[in-house]
Amino acid sequence: MKERLRDLRTKHLRLTQQEFADSIKLSRSNVGNIESGIVQLTQRNIDAICEKFNVNEGWLKTGEGEVFLNLSPEEEFDMLVGRLYADDDSFKKNIIRAMLKLNDEDWLVVKKFTEELKKGM
């Protein structure tokens, strides 16, 4: 499991140990110890990883199946809203609150702005 965790973090998520640790509320040294095999991955940590990153628990434990769960658009939306709700970042929540208060005309401005951003990428 330690190899799959390192593979998930580095190849799929492209996160440092610190970024990964912060996202699931562990210390960087704990993640390093898990990846080195010094410490076992607990079920609580498995649950946190799977929930945070939409990882297939079966794959993480056994290597079988797809790395990530396939969600319908509605399930993905629900998952993302749940993550936002659980997040402590007030900036993200304030942005979403402000967007939910937009009228149709304001949404057109946001749409045009987004299209311009895409052109620049």
UniProtKB/TrEMBL annotation:
Top-rank lineage group of the source organism: Bacteria
By its UniProt entry, which InterPro entries does this protein fall under? Cro/C1-type_HTH, Lambda_DNA-bd_dom_sf
Every copy of the HTH cro/C1-type domain together lies at 5-60
Q: Could you give a GO molecular-function term held by this entry? A: DNA binding
Q: Where is the signal peptide?
A: none
One protein family per Pfam = HTH_3
| Family annotation (SMART domains) | HTH_XRE
- What's the protein called, per UniProt? Transcriptional regulator
